[in-house]
Structure to design on (340 residues):
C-alpha cells in the first residue's frame, strides 16, 4: 500500500493521523493539546504518525472554531519614528510567545485615519488592539464601539473612558534633564515642544517648568516654542531662538525629531549651545555635542502593552479586570561634551 503524503493527496488531515495511529480523531486532538488524559503509548503512536505524514494543524480554521482570529492589531502614529519601530518589536516579541500574529497600521497622527482603521479592524473580529491614539477624543475606542474587543493604549492615556495603558515617565524624564542643564549653570533654557494638546507634549513641558520652579528660575516665555511637528519646524524654531539678541544657552526638545532639528540649527550657526532631548537616537554619542538625552526602553512599552492585551483576551472571569496603568521609567544619558 502506498503511503499517503501531502504531495500525493493534498495536506494530511487529523483523520489521516488518527487512522495511521489506530486511535480516534479526538485522541489526536488531545495529544496536540498536551492533554494529560492520553496514555503515553497512544501519545507516541500519534506523534509518530504526525511526523510520518507531515501533518500540520490548520491554525486559521482552529482559531475560527474557537472564536479567535489569532491576530492582534497595533496602530501607531508615525512608523518612520524609530520609537514606534521599537515598540512594535516589543509587541511582536510577546505576541509570538502566545502564538499571535500582529497587524500594523500607521495613522500619520491623523484622527480620522485612526478612527477609520479602528472601525475596520473591529469589524474584522481581531482578537484585540493596541493603539497609540492620535488625538484626545477616544470615543471610537470604547467597548461598545469596538464590539467588546479588548484595547490597550500605549504612550498616551485614555480620555473619557477606562482602558489599560502603558506610559513613559514623561514628566519625570523632562524634569531630570532640565534639572541637569540648570545644574550645569544654564539659566536661559529654550524649549522646543510638540503640540501641547498631546499628552506627551503637555507632560514634558510640565517637567521642564517644574525643574525651573524647583531651582528658583523663571523660564523666559520668549524662548518657548510649542506645537512643533518635525525636524524642519524644529530647525526653524531653534534658528530663530538662537538669532535672538539674548539667545538661550541651552535647548530642551521633547522628542528625537525636534532634537535632530535643533542639532541642525546649532551646526549651521556654529553656536556653543547645550542640547537636551527626549528619546535616544542612533549616533547621538558620536556627534561631539554637549547632549543630554532622556532614554527609556521603547521595546518594554510594547512588551507590557502586549501582555496587558493578552491578559484581557484570556480573561474569562465574571467581573472584568479593572483598568490598569503602568509607567516605564526613564534615565538620563550625557553624551559628547556634556558634563558628567
Amino acid at each position: 500500500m502506498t503511503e499517503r503524503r501531502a504531495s500525493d493527496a493534498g495536506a494530511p488531515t487529523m483523520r489521516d493521523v488518527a487512522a495511521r495511529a489506530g486511535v480516534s480523531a479526538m485522541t489526536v486532538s488531545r495529544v496536540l493539546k498536551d492533554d494529560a488524559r492520553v496514555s503515553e503509548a497512544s501519545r507516541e503512536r500519534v506523534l509518530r504518525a504526525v511526523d510520518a505524514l507531515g501533518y500540520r494543524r490548520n491554525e486559521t480554521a482552529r482559531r475560527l472554531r474557537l472564536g479567535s482570529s489569532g491576530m492582534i492589531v497595533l496602530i501607531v502614529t508615525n512608523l518612520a519614528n524609530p520609537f514606534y519601530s521599537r515598540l512594535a518589536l516589543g509587541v511582536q516579541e510577546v505576541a509570538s510567545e502566545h502564538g499571535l500574529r500582529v497587524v500594523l497600521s500607521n495613522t500619520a497622527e491623523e484622527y480620522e485615519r485612526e478612527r477609520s482603521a479602528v472601525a475596520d479592524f473591529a469589524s474584522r473580529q481581531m482578537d484585540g488592539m493596541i493603539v497609540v491614539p492620535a488625538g484626545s477624543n477616544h470615543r471610537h475606542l470604547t467597548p461598545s464601539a469596538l464590539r467588546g474587543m479588548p484595547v490597550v493604549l500605549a504612550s498616551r492615556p485614555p480620555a473619557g473612558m477606562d482602558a489599560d495603558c502603558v506610559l513613559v515617565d514623561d514628566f519625570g524624564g523632562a524634569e531630570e534633564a532640565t534639572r541637569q542643564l540648570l545644574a550645569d549653570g544654564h539659566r536661559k533654557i529654550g524649549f522646543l515642544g510638540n503640540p501641547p494638546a498631546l499628552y506627551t507634549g503637555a507632560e514634558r513641558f510640565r517637567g521642564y517648568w517644574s525643574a525651573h520652579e524647583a531651582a528658583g528660575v523663571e523660564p523666559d516665555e520668549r524662548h518657548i516654542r510649542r506645537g512643533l511637528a518635525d525636524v524642519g519646524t524644529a530647525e526653524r524654531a531653534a534658528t530663530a531662538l538662537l538669532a535672538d539678541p539674548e539667545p538661550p544657552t541651552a535647548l530642551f526638545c521633547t522628542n528625537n525629531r525636534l532634537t535632530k532639528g535643533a542639532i541642525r540649527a546649532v551646526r549651521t550657526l556654529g553656536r556653543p549651545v547645550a542640547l537636551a532631548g527626549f528619546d535616544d537616537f542612533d549616533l547621538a554619542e558620536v556627534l561631539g555635542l554637549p547632549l543630554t538625552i532622556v532614554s527609556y526602553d521603547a521595546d518594554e512599552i510594547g512588551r507590557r502593552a502586549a501582555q496587558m492585551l493578552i491578559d484581557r483576551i484570556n480573561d474569562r472571569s465574571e467581573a472584568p479586570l479593572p483598568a490598569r496603568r503602568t509607567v516605564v521609567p526613564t534615565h538620563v544619558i550625557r553624551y559628547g561634551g556634556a558634563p558628567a
